[in-house]
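Our preliminary data section would be incomplete without showing what the modeling component actually yields. Below, a chain of 108 amino acids is followed by its predicted structure, encoded as tokens that our downstream tools consume directly.
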Amino acid sequence: MMYQRKGPPMSDTILTDAAAATAFRRLVTHLQHRTDVENIDLMGLAGFCRNCLADWVAEADGGLTKDQARELIHGMPFAEWKSRYQGEATPQQIARMKESVAKNADSH
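Predicted structure:
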């Protein structure tokens, strides 16, 4: 089954930059607080995770490396976050992630 966006296409004019920035900061704070939710689970449910978000930030900024952006999103160096909060992924988590990520192919 192919993923299809429902409704009209998103437009950059829907939100002001200030509203988007405020919502983004709240999302980052929320993700930093919810360390119990692993990236593999985010990938399995939503098709993106903290690392994806950091990569998008680095790409949009143009001056940040992926490591710098990941530290901003995780609130600490990624290696430290990974050692503190990331467990081994189960085969079920990996399968769910692959299925979810496959739905991203036609949305970007």
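The helical segments are 17-33, 39-46, 50-61, 66-74, 78-85, 91-102. Residues 47 and 104 are 7 Å apart (CA to CA). Preliminary results of this kind motivate Aim 1 of the renewal.
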